[in-house]
Structure formats: C-alpha cells, structure tokens
C-alpha cells in the first residue's frame, strides 16, 4: 500500500447562498476526485457569508442540526466520489445552544465524526463568542479511510496545546478549516505580519509534532452587514505543509482555487526518528500548563 | 522610559580552548556594549568544542561549579560593560551530577539566576543524555535590569510547552543559546528543511505567546573526536524575532557574527490585545498534556 495521499483544499469566496455554495462545493469535489484526491478539506462555515462580523439573532437561522440537510447533501457527495470530506457547519444543538462544528464524512458517505471548535475568538469583525458555545467534545481525532484526522478549526490554529493533544491521540495529520483575513484599514506591513504569523503558527505545529498540516482558508472581500465596520478581506493562502513544516503547496491570496498536494504519510515516521520530540517531553514539569497564568 | 531595547547575539566558532573562547567573548561583549546593546546572548556551551559528538568520561573535565571560574570572569564582563549577559556552561553540581546550564548575569555583574536545560536530546552527533542530567529547576523566568527573561536551551526550542510555561510565568522574551548543525552527509534539500524547521519552530513560539524570541547558534565545522562520525556543520543563522514571529535580524550560516537588533518591549502588549490567545486557552481540556501519549 502506497503511503502517498493526494489531498485537495477548496479555497473559495462566498457565493451568496447555501445553495450556491454547496453547488460550487459539489463541482470542486468532483474536480478534486477526478484529479485523484482522496481527501478534500473545505473552508470554515463554507455554506455562507462569514456572519460573525456583527451580532444579530437572525443569523442563527443559518444553523442546522447534525445530521441535517447539509450533512445529507455532503454525505452523498463524499460517497459519490469516494472521498473523505472535511466540512464546517453552524450546528444547532438545542434552542440557545450552537456550535462551530467540523463534520467529517468517510469515503462511504458515513459521518465519521465531528469536532466542535474548542477555542472561540472574539474581536472586532470576528464576534464568535455571541454565536458559538465552546466545544465540549475535547481534542479527539477522527478515524477515516485515509487515516486518523486531527481536525481543528480556525482560532484553534494559534494554540500549540490543541495540535499537541491531537498528536498525542495518534492523529496522522492536522486539518484546519478557517476564515481569516485583514482589516482593510491596517497598513500593508501589519497585514503581512499577520498573514505570515498565521502560516508560521501552523507550520510550527507541523514541526513540533512531526506531521502534515492542511489549512483551508476563505478568500474575497465581505462587507460588514451593519455598514459601520470596514469589512474583511479574507487572505486565502491555503496551504499544505509536511512534517518538517516544509511547504508542499500554497494557494494565492485573491482568487478561489482548488489546491492539490501529495502528502507522504510514511514520512512522519522517519522525521520523528531523527527528531524524537515525543520521547523527551517533561510531563513531570508541565503541570502549570493547566493554569490560566503562573503569576498572581 | 523607552520600550526599545538593543540586543546582541554572539554567533561564533569554537576557538580551541576556554581561554581563547572567553577572550573572544570579552571582545564581542565590548563591541556589543559600544554599539548600545544592553542584553547580550551567547551560544550554547560557548567555552569549548561541542563535545557531545562522542561519549568520553574525560570530557567531564570541562565542567565546573556555578559559581566558579567562568562565572567569575563573565560576571566581571557584565559589570564592566553594564550589560545583562546570558551565558551557557557545563555545570558540575556533584560527582556524577552535571547539567547544561544557562547562567544569567545582571548588568551589575550579579548572578541573576540560572536555568538547567530541561529537555535533553540524544541522537547521533548529539549524545547529550550521557553528559547532562535533565534540569530540576523547572521553567522559571529570570528577572534582570532589562526585563524578565525566559531562558531556555537548544533542544527546548522544539517544545511549545516550554515556551508557553515561560510566557505564563510572565517572561517578556524567550532566549535560546543553542548548538545545532547539519550532518554533512545529508542531502542539501534535507539540510534546508531542518534549518527552516528550526527557525519555524522558534518563530512559532513568538507567535503563540506574543513575545520576542532571540536564538544564538554556533557556527563552523567541528569534527568527531573519534574520527568515525561525519562531524557537524553548525549552521549559525542566529536570529531575533518580534512578537508576531516577524524576523528583526538574522545572521549568516558560515561566519562568526555579532548580530544586533532593536526589540520593542511595548509591542507585545499591542499584539496580545489584537490576538488575545491567553484569554481563550481551554485549561479545562488540556489535562492530557501531562500524559506521555493518549493511546495505549
């Protein structure tokens, strides 16, 4: 059995409705499968606009149960093309209880598992704490036909703890559906620092844990529905890194793109033999990682 | 009081004896102080060759107590130039008990504190587990005239846990004396991946924790004393990164170099306000970070 796995990332702009976005995803997954991809990663909240630019109770209408209409359609898509599909949905769990949830479909269309975003951001333009209850399923990888997937979502990408916990649970790669972009008012140098920091952080997780990282980001301009904010320019730049953090593929920052890459799942074993970081962790001295801060 | 701090990193090759290396360090610290540096970082085990390429009990003769002859000389140096000096010594604590220890001298020459390397590597060319007992002082920053320093050493640089614990204890920057290089037999592409991974990992710590990172590495070729191994080509590339992981200065990979950079200690506050990662850590869900592995 070959250790090479072709993966595809669907970097896209919002196409105005769940119907239009799902139709586009169906087109892209078909293209990915035709190109030999066996794993397809979608961007965060791919069914619609990134609605967290404002706080409006009407936005909860976007949420749906899991399983529900979107998972039915995505399950059929995964099955039709025999691909493992990593999606990102606004989950309605109960009245007043919603999550930002990644749903993984196995190559036979079955729901292989779900991950509820654990770290929830909240800052101007990204007011997620209003909408999403922090996940309560922990950091658990999801087993699929292409391997054990460490699926995390967006803000999680800044937390080495999340990546490490997935690796310790045997994840063979990390996958991040994400939606991150610039405040168009920021100066160019600051925008570049932010974008580069975002890439660095995730490539760093690849290095620290000796496994591939796939990150699929949204692209395009979305305005603030209130008309008061500057809107967001999503910076695309979806990428795939290998287990030494090396870039295997990287998308542009302006256009929608189907990004393909081949990852070598056997390479992690080699990399971890020359750099056996897991061997030397000082678990006797890490207790304070469970504290908020170590000073008063 | 200005928040700008000029720092200097002394990237050097082994000059054959502790006497010659310390004389060179005295020269470099004088140059750094003359250039306005108030903090000087030396490379790992700067007093001599990187002796861990082989296992030989005679190498323990290099070790010395702390305080001891080297700390006396380095204390005088720090005091003479009124700089905070971060050094790296082979500590003899007792018969059969040795550590790889960073000693920090305050600008008045006093020993401000010490850090005993917590993560100890052991792989071909870097057989440190023979020489160094893992540190027992934990991850505690050291207070100095230029701020609270999170001093770590070499192999620690691969562990996000170490960086995080220093940040949680209020460290204002991370500093790594290090000695890392290539196996000259490795192919060029592999050498580049390793070097880039090393930079990525540490820049990733800057991003995750919103603080500057200073890393000072050895340079030059050192042969295997047994004549059996390929030797090590230390890759230099010492660097200073800001709190978004942005590179502020980076040395070459072949020559000795006094690397200067200005870091803005107030910048971390701004960066952590726009990206408040510490706010959202899921300390309720990090318990398994204290386990060796989460599978059987």
Mind explaining what this structure looks like?
Two copies of one chain form a homodimer. With 296 residues, chain A is an alpha/beta fold. Chain A has a single domain (4-282), classed as Nitrilase/N-carbamoyl-D-aminoacid amidohydrolase, CATH 3.60.110. Helices cover 23% and strands 28% of the residues of chain A. Chain A has five helices and 15 strands. A six-stranded mixed β-sheet of chain A has the order 5-4-3-2-1-15. In chain A, strands 6-7-8-10-13-14 form a six-stranded mixed β-sheet, covered by helices on one side. In chain A, strands 9-12-11 form a three-stranded antiparallel β-sheet, covered by helices on one side. In chain A, helix 1 (18-34) links the parallel strand 1 and strand 2. The longest helix of chain A is centred in the C-terminal third of the chain and has 22 residues, at 188-209. In chain A, 51% of the residues are buried. Chains A and B meet through helix 3 and helix 4 of A and helix 3 and helix 4 of B.
Task: Give the SSE layout.
Two copies of one chain form a homodimer.
Chain A: E1 4-11, H1 18-34, E2 39-42, H2 69-81, E3 84-94, E4 97-105, E5 111-116, E6 142-144, E7 147-151, H3 160-168, E8 173-178, E9 181-182, H4 188-209, E10 213-217, E11 219-222, E12 232-235, E13 239-241, E14 247-250, E15 257-264, H5 267-274
Parallel strand pairs in A: 1-2, 2-3, 7-8, 8-10
Antiparallel strand pairs in A: 1-15, 3-4, 4-5, 6-7, 9-12, 10-13, 11-12, 13-14
